[in-house]
Input
Amino acid sequence: MTQKVAVLGTGKIGEALLSGMIRGGWAPSDLLVTARRQDRADQLHARYGVDAVSNAEAAKSADTLILTVKPQDMDALLRELAPHVPADRLVISGAAGIPTAYFEERLAAGTPVVRVMTNTPALVDEAMSVISAGTHATGAHLTRAEEIFAGVGKTLRVPESQQDACTALSGSGPAYFYFLVEAMTDAGILLGLPRDKAHDLIVQAAIGAAVMLRDSGEHPVKLRENVTSPAGTTINAIRELENHGVRAALIAALEAARDRSRELATGNG
Output
């Protein structure tokens, strides 16, 4: 791996990506980071042995620039970068809701841009990173993005037109599961269990169910039916979930997340 990669705006996700790349075999000497605060830059240098540089220096030196700043900070970053980014640099954006055209309009003509929506399980190497090509990005550029993000989980290529839907399902997805665990923990307390025991029971059930979904090859309906005995406890619980419209509420929630992602893309923040 001789390509030099710079992570710009290295917050939690940027640091998770950096550490995943190093575990995956990237040499610290091939990696650069930028950070808004000097103490943060010093911390990253001490922790990973990577050079911390200015945004302009990263743009001049790196073959691939990964932009991990918040969407509201992206315009200022691009104004700073634009004079220093040659058209042969690969620019990877991890900002929710911002289309590749936004970057192409602000950078040198022909700059290849790849859009990636990852999620917070990147912090434990279990991310789902969804990758889309801009107008000038080639298959080789997509492969390079996959090599980088494979260090923190799985990757999936999709047309950019599907990115808002992926943001709703995967980008925001972990929050829905945390919300469900929170609600089930409260139910466990209502049923007489201490909070810590209710939490442990639910978290392990979630882990076990996720592994079975991933490894068994079975449809989720089949897995649910395997737990659902006639006139048993599970079917009574499922009936209440259906009576309270949980399925419809989930569909409506994901549509709302998709619509908000579209709003962010048009600048209605």
About this structure: The mean pLDDT is 94. The two ends are 38 Å apart (CA to CA).
